[in-house]
From TrEMBL:
Segments passing through the bilayer: none
Limits of the NlpC/P60 domain: 156-283
Protein family according to the UniProt entry: Belongs to the peptidase C40 family.
GO molecular function, a single term: cysteine-type peptidase activity
Organism classification: Bacteria, Pseudomonadati, Pseudomonadota, Alphaproteobacteria, Hyphomicrobiales
Protein name: NlpC/P60 family protein
Provenance organism: Salinarimonas soli
GO biological process terms, semicolon-separated: proteolysis
Length: 293
């Protein structure tokens, strides 16, 4: 049987206990629940600091750690199921359950409840924190650091328009595997924006094309598209901002851009990467469905 290594916590020597009936390994472990304690943590295919990474996990994300060796933990992200290696220093087995998420595209951490203090780091949209109290305009975190309270939202709060969230990342640099306001890739932009709207989404563009929404037929004239439609190529995805313009993180401009879909289609085809492979349309969410992500 063939398994997707991105989503299957199985190696020849070790596998998730839940896979005992479906994969062969030397031993099986249940894994240890932990949370990401760093503002953002790269998840790599192999346990080496000089290896490019597949994705990022944000502060507060739940993970299951199956192994730890020489500073790297082999984990599976609970939110989207991605498997890989993360720095052990980025994980905490005793971190409290988050109460809020970052709703601003980026917010600073401070050693006290004042904007005049030197910042001690930053968190990006979607990071989750446990608020232990408030002092003036600032929320106190278990670490003793503070964040501007109005940059936070309750975990179950959801943005009404995921495209509007994506548009806030316009001009953000392109970063392969990235999911933060400092840099993200095409499918990272889609995943982070959908999650802000309470819509769970897989990580990579092929997964998104397979699992999100329903197919929309599109002809050579590109007519009939709507705001929010996801447009796919092999290895690439963007979202329609209006019936004519695509918002996408791309390596051509090395940033998030908004440009005519027809121009993007012709450029990608002209560079030998093929045509549009599909368009997917997400159904509108009812009020009761929002906030479940």
């Amino acid at each position: 049987m063939t398994f997707d290594r991105r989503l299957t916590p199985a190696r020849a020597d070790l596998a998730d206990e839940r896979l005992r009936a479906s994969v062969t390994a030397e031993r099986y472990v249940p894994g240890t629940p932990m949370r990401v304690s760093a503002p953002a943590a790269p998840l790599r295919r192999t346990p080496a600091p000089d290896v490019g990474y597949d994705t990022e996990a944000l502060m507060g994300e739940a993970v299951r750690a199956f192994d730890e060796h020489e500073g790297f933990a082999w984990v599976q992200l609970e939110r989207d199921g991605y498997v890989g290696y993360m720095s052990s220093d980025a994980l905490d087995g005793s971190a409290p359950e988050p109460t809020h998420r970052v709703a601003a595209i980026r917010t600073f951490l401070y050693p006290g409840p004042s904007l005049k203090l030197p910042q001690a780091g930053h968190l990006s949209l979607g990071a989750a924190v446990a608020v232990t109290g408030e002092e003036g305009d600032y929320a106190r975190l278990p670490s003793g650091l503070f964040v501007f309270a109005r940059h936070l939202a309750p975990l179950d709060a959801a943005e009404p328009d995921f495209v509007a969230v994506a548009e806030r990342f316009l001009h953000t640099p392109y970063l392969w595997g990235g999911k933060t306001s400092l840099g993200l890739d095409c499918s990272g932009l889609i995943q982070v924006s959908l999650q802000a709207a309470g819509i769970m989404a897989p990580r990579d563009s092929d997964m998104q094309e397979r699992e999100l929404g329903t197919p929309v037929p599109v002809g050579d004239d590109l007519a009939g598209l709507r705001r929010g439609d996801l447009v796919f190529w092999k290895g690439h995805v963007g979202v329609m901002s209006d019936p004519k313009h695509l918002l996408h993180a791309n390596g051509h401009h090395m940033r998030v851009t908004l440009e005519p879909l027809a121009d993007v289609r012709d450029r990608i085809a002209g560079n030998g990467y093929g045509g549009i492979t599909g368009v997917r349309r997400l159904p509108p969410l009812s009020h009761g469905e929002r906030g479940r992500g």
